[in-house]
From TrEMBL, chain A:
PANTHER family: BIFUNCTIONAL PROTEIN [INCLUDES 2-HYDROXYACYL-COA DEHYDRATASE (N-TER) AND ITS ACTIVATOR DOMAIN (C_TERM), BIFUNCTIONAL PROTEIN [INCLUDES 2-HYDROXYACYL-COA DEHYDRATASE (N-TER) AND ITS ACTIVATOR DOMAIN (C_TERM)-RELATED. Residues 3-222 form the DUF2229 domain. Gene3D superfamilies: 3.40.50.11900. It comes from the Bacteria. It comes from Candidatus Syntrophocurvum alkaliphilum. InterPro entries: CoA_activase_DUF2229, Dehydratase_Activator_Redct. This is Activator of (R)-2-hydroxyglutaryl-CoA dehydratase.
From TrEMBL, chain B:
This is Activator of (R)-2-hydroxyglutaryl-CoA dehydratase. It comes from Candidatus Syntrophocurvum alkaliphilum. Residues 8-71 form the DUF2229 domain. It comes from the Bacteria. InterPro entries: CoA_activase_DUF2229 (IPR018709), Dehydratase_Activator_Redct (IPR051805). Pfam families: DUF2229.
Length: 329, 372
């Protein structure tokens, strides 16, 4: 069977179900790299240029692992834009070229270009081009893609229920996960999905919060309309898709009475984060806000201390508020 | 209304002429100094890139000198630049400054829109007056660039480098002061004559292509004045970005002069096969272009964390290897001290010099062999 490798980084967290279904429907076997571990991180750091952001370095590590596996293709899409007049990040636009220039033992790269910034005319052509690597039957390709979209929707539905994208992928694949629902704090947690839901990059921040009996309230749980509505209150549209989701989500949570605080996890060296983090910090006025910057040198202990301090503060605040209310009421 | 705008190299000369032509009072920010750096760094998001910080410094200094209106360009991504003005406005307002801001949201859209935006900005100017102002600004821009190119060519060659620089500086000042086209032509004629009359070395001059992000390439204060530093080390620089070309390619749709842009995009293949924002693809395109023209080396520059340039940097190694051209990448931020960077530049020049003499020797050897 033809084997297609999909590195477990960057777009993986957002679109894995789509691409996995598509390739499997075309008769291929899909292979992923393992969850990010120290070896993947250190190899990524070795191969990528120093100045690039942590998630891209980690992605290099995943590609490297797959290169040593027996696969026929490696899937490295060029995701320029997934909606009108918006982008993800220049690095997403250049990633197949960057990878090609940095490895010399790469399997054949499938590098479909997805650019919906102006229209989606090209998308169909690109999908057929990829499908034709496996079959010449255009109808089969179309069917595979339709099925893929159905599966992606199912996955999106799961991720609305408070699971991280990483967990939602596992649930989508049939695994069972039970969330600890004992919590007294609700904290909005923002950041690029491939950072905060990658346990190595974010040092498992979501689970750490859960262990501290906080519910991590993530943007995937919000309705797209709500996000867009809040984001559109800015004088200029944020032209990074994920960035806009963060801004809109944070503004919305800032108004909600059930949210106790907001955390933004930014990656050191991330371009969009340096602006989006600033915008959110300025606009979040009602809730305690904490910006955490992570990179390959961030220590776990320091992170735990900061999270604990933040939670303590939120709890104190909460009990003060409650006693205030009862005093007056 | 007193208008200001951010610095970017010598472009202030043309922008000032343009705004004056629109009958506006202009406050040019003081040249970028340590103080500009300090103000900018102190009042910008920590991880923003250097151009944003220097913009902030420019604005604060200009507002303190009485400016009450800022003109700034915008854009629609994916590079951060498109969102600068938004962040800058909010920070300045929070600092307590009272000002208006005009954001020209059109670097990639239509010229006609831009002209209309400019006309609106002006104080009761007719369309004809706005066009006249634009034309005069363009003439100044071209003149300035001509002098920049002369400096790039003559500084490494001239035996009296101080004098060469002085003539250049003086010519800029005169162009800035000039009131009409005739004056500009006279200034050009006499400055060029002076620069060309300085005695030159007969040594072979090393040629280096300077590639990378537009602001860092155009603003000497953001790049430890790399053109002059290298010129004094006897290296001739050719840049990937000249402002008149950039305007011709991106705003005028190649209307005014023949454009090399398509060729550069072609050169970037197969290394960069799509637009990657900013000038990432052009950086690689020019790397290949300069390599084809047998340049001795490439220096890529950009602000630290510049995304399109990181894409390009990740690919430049492969280009260098396949096209056999030495290269280095330098990123600038507020911590880049000129001492450290000068050392790196000297080492690089040393290296390409040795490389070059090595090639010469090889040539000499084959000559001897063919004679024997
Ligand atoms: S958005 Fe930020 S973290 Fe993601 S690839 Fe771009 S620079 Fe890296």
């Amino acid at each position: 069977m033809i084997k297609v490798g999909i590195p477990r980084g960057l777009f993986y967290f957002y679109y894995y179900p789509l691409w996995k279904t598509f390739f499997e429907n075309l008769g291929a076997e899909v292979v992923t790299s393992s969850e990010t571990n120290n070896k993947i991180v250190s190899q990524g750091i070795d191969i990528a240029v120093d100045e690039t952001c942590f998630p891209v370095k980690v992605y290099y590590g995943h590609v490297n692992q797959l290169c040593n596996e027996n696969i026929d293709y490696i899937f490295i899409p060029r995701i320029v834009s997934v909606e009108l007049r918006s982008y993800i990040c220049p690095k997403f636009m250049g990633i197949p070229d960057m990878i090609r220039a940095s490895f010399n033992n790469l399997p054949y790269v499938i590098d479909i270009t997805i650019d919906l910034s102006r229209n989606n005319k090209e998308l169909k052509k690109e999908i057929i081009k990829v499908g034709q690597l496996f079959t010449s039957n255009k109808k089969a390709i179309n069917n595979a893609y339709q099925n893929a979209i159905i599966e992606q929707k199912r996955f999106n539905q799961i991720s609305k229920e408070g699971y991280t994208l990483d967990e939602a992928i596992k649930l989508w694949e049939g695994l069972k996960i039970k969330l600890n629902t004992k919590n007294d704090l609700k904290i909005g947690v923002f950041g690029h999905g491939y950072s905060i839901y990658d346990q190595a990059i974010s040092m498992n921040i979501i689970n750490k919060l859960r262990e501290m009996e906080c519910q991590a309230y993530i943007p995937e749980m919000l309705d797209k309309k709500i996000i867009e509505k809040e984001a559109s209150t800015l004088p200029k549209r944020v032209f990074w898709t994920i960035g806009r989701k963060m801004v809109g989500g944070a503004l919305h949570m800032d108004k909600r009475t059930d949210i106790d605080g907001i955390i933004y996890v930014s990656c050191f060296g991330c371009g969009p984060d340096s602006i989006v983090g600033e915008v959110i910090e300025r606009k979040v006025k009602n809730k305690p806000f904490m910006l955490i910057t992570v990179d390959e040198h961030t220590g776990e202990a320091g992170l735990v201390t900061r999270l604990e301090a933040f939670c303590d503060m939120l709890r104190r605040r909460k009990s003060n508020n409650e006693s205030n209310i009862s005093a007056h009421g | 209304m007193k208008v200001t705008f951010p610095h970017m190299g010598n472009s202030y000369i043309a922008i000032k002429a343009l705004l004056k032509g629109l009958k506006l009072e202009v406050v040019v920010p003081p040249p970028i100094s340590n103080k500009t750096y300090e103000l900018g760094v102190k009042n910008s998001p920590e991880f923003a890139c250097l151009p944003l910080k220097l913009n902030m410094g420019n604005f604060i200094e200009a507002l303190d000198q009485g400016a009450d209106t800022i003109v700034m360009a915008g854009g629609w991504g994916p590079c951060r630049f498109g969102y600068y003005a938004q962040v800058e406005r909010d920070i300045l307002r929070d600092l307590g400054y009272d000002f208006d801001i005009y954001i020209l949201e059109s670097p990639d859209s239509k010229l006609t829109e831009l002209i209309l935006q400019l006309k609106d900005l002006g104080q009761n100017v007719s369309l004809a007056e706005a066009l006249k102002a634009l034309r005069f600004a363009w003439i100044k821009l071209k003149a300035v660039e001509q002098m920049e190119k002369k400096l790039e060519y003559y500084l490494p060659r001239s035996l009296d480098k101080d004098k060469t620089e002085k003539i250049y500086e003086k010519s800029l000042k005169d162009i800035d002061d000039a009131n009409n086209k005739r004056e500009i032509n006279q200034i050009l004629k006499s400055s060029i004559k002076q620069i060309e009359s300085i005695e030159c070395t007969n040594d072979k001059i090393l040629k280096v292509g300077l590639i990378g992000e537009i602001y860092t390439i155009l603003e000497p204060a953001s790049n430890v004045n790399i053109v002059k530093t290298l010129g004094r080390l006897g290296v001739e620089i050719t840049r990937s970005t000249y402002l008149t070309d950039w305007i011709n390619d991106h705003i005028l749709g190649g209307y005014i002069k023949k454009s090399n842009h398509k060729n550069i995009i072609k050169c970037a293949k197969p290394y960069v096969n799509y637009w990657v924002g900013g000038h990432g693809r052009e950086t690689i395109g020019y790397a290949v272009h300069f390599a084809k023209q047998k340049y001795d080396g490439l220096i890529q520059i950009g602000p630290l964390t510049c995304m399109p340039e990181i894409v390009a940097q990740s690919i430049l190694g492969k280009v260098g290897e396949e096209k056999e051209i030495p290269h280095m990448t330098i990123y600038f931020d507020e911590q880049s001290g000129s001492a450290g960077i000068n050392t790196r530049l000297e080492a690089f020049v040393d290296m390409i010099q040795r490389n070059d003499s090595f090639v010469l020797k090889e040539d000499a050897k084959s000559e001897i062999l063919s004679w024997s």
